[in-house]
Amino acid sequence: MKLVIVDYGMGNLKSVMSALHYLGYEDVTLSNEIPVLERADKLILPGVGNYARAMYKINSFDLVSGIRQLALEEKKPILGICLGMQLMGLSSTESGFNTGLGLIDGVVEAFDNKELRVPHVGYNQLIPRNDSRLYSGLSANPDFYFTHSFKMSSSAEIGRSNCSYGDDFVASFELENIAGVQFHPELSQKNGLKLLKNFIELF
């Protein structure tokens, strides 16, 4: 199993790689080169930081069309983590309006409840879909570690699982070969490790 973590300079790369190695997956590569991504069995798109900056970096490495080709046309399994999940959507209002990768129908906006402490940081339970592959074998309301100031919403059928922080938001989605999680599985102990394994084995 060849796993490639997309390295555009804004991800929790070492923690993700360490989690995959802990699970026994040794063939793990960091790369921002499309030929390397093409040879992967599964792709992971991590992300930490600012949406606008991330899309600038992704564009600077000329990755947009290649990632879209692999995910949408070749149906290569891909998992987005935190900011990486948000980048898979259509757009974000972080630092102005920015267009995303457009892999799924979702938009990213700031938490608008003024009574909430932002960023949303810490463990929070979520409600998985009954037919979820990501949460297979986990409890009915598993908890994961979140840290984010912007949230994704979607009215489309993207296989979403919800989390509530003031309002409901997309905690994860899974649509055919494309999956994303707002939380950090690599920092979420046993539940996070199980989810990573589920993505690798079930997608």
* Tally of alpha and pi helices: 6
- Total number of beta strands: 13
- Major sheet, described briefly? 9 strands, mixed
Cα separation of the termini: 12 Å
Q: Which class of secondary structure composition applies to the elements?
A: alpha/beta
Nearest-integer average pLDDT: 96
Q: Bin the strand percentage.
A: 25-35%
Element order: H for helix, E for strand: EHEHEHHEHEEEEEEEEEH
Could you tell me the radius of gyration in angstroms? 15 Å
- Strands across the major sheet, in which order? 2-1-3-4-13-12-11-8-9
Low-confidence stretches: none
Shape estimate: globular
Helix content: 25-40%
Description:
It comes from Enterobacter agglomerans (Erwinia herbicola). This is Imidazole glycerol phosphate synthase subunit HisH. The chain has 203 residues and is of the alpha/beta class. It is 27% helix and 30% strand. The protein is built from 6 helices and 13 strands. It has helices at 13-22, 34-38, 51-60, 64-73, 83-87, 189-202; strands spanning 3-6, 28-31, 42-45, 78-81, 91-92, 98-99, 107-110, 120-127, 143-148, 150-153, 161-165, 167-175, 178-181. Strands 2-1-3-4-13-12-11-8-9 form a 9-stranded mixed beta sheet. It has a 4-stranded mixed beta sheet with strand order 6-5-7-10, covered by helices on one side. The longest helix is centred in the C-terminal third of the chain and has 14 residues, at 189-202. It is globular. The protein starts with a strand and ends with a helix. The relative contact order is 0.17.
